[in-house]
Design goal:
Length: 225
């Protein structure tokens, strides 16, 4: 409901992920409760989700429905998280605004005269507007950091290959800097919880190219003021 409200004002959601309710019912029956149990999670357009399109803001990709979940979506679900919406991006994602010819312009909920930043702009707008408490964006040259800054949020671009990018429809750009998936939220604790949940055995098994190093709580707390 909240996501719909925010979307009406700032145009940040491009798709609702069907099957969320079924997933919640299934989770309730499980004995093991994951670290993200019952948390609705928004995900950026290019993160593949079974039965949905990853358009990259480009018309040519609209007919290509994905047949399976990306590794990150599988891991979020394994940890009890519920991916519930996909969010808007600028066309091709190489931009720090957030508009494309399919879904239009996303606005900044703090000031609709301004951009939410990009390329994870739909995530920034939805979380800042109160429509999501945790989102997954991606960052090559600021695509998590810029919208987090523009929208007054916390965001993390992890070290390259820390989180599996497998099953994301990144466009075939040749870049010297590795693009990374990472969490966006309203506070640092939420980012830490998300990273802790993602860096689990399930991810290391689904993608053996990811170094099997769990989240280090001690290092995080040592860095705290």
């Amino acid at each position: 409901g909240e996501a719909l409200e925010v979307n009406r004002e700032v145009n940040c959601v491009i798709d609702f992920i069907h099957g969320c309710e079924d997933q919640l019912q299934k989770l309730k029956k499980q004995k093991e409760k994951g670290l993200l149990y019952g948390i609705p999670i928004s995900i950026k357009d290019h993160i593949n989700c079974k039965g949905h399109v990853s358009s990259g803001g480009m018309v040519k990709f609209l007919g290509q429905v994905k047949e399976e979940d990306s590794v990150i979506v599988q891991v979020l679900k394994h940890q009890g998280g519920i991916p519930f919406v996909k969010t808007n991006i600028p066309q091709t994602m190489i931009n720090y605004d957030c508009s494309n010819l399919i879904f239009g312009q996303t606005l900044n909920p703090l000031n609709p005269q301004r951009s939410p930043g990009g390329s994870s702009g739909g995530e920034g707008a939805l979380i800042a507007g109160g429509g999501s408490i945790l989102g997954i964006g991606s960052d090559v040259a600021g695509s998590i950091r810029l919208p987090s800054s523009f929208c007054g949020l916390c965001g993390l671009k992890p070290t390259a290959n820390r989180i599996s990018p497998a099953g994301c429809s990144d466009r075939p750009f040749v870049l010297a800097v590795a693009g990374m998936l990472g969490p966006m939220a309203r506070d640092v604790d939420s980012l830490a919880l998300c990273m802790k949940a993602l860096l689990c055995q399930e991810m290391f098994q689904l993608d053996p190219t990811v170094p099997p190093i769990p989240f280090d709580e001690q290092v995080r707390l040592r860095g705290a003021p």
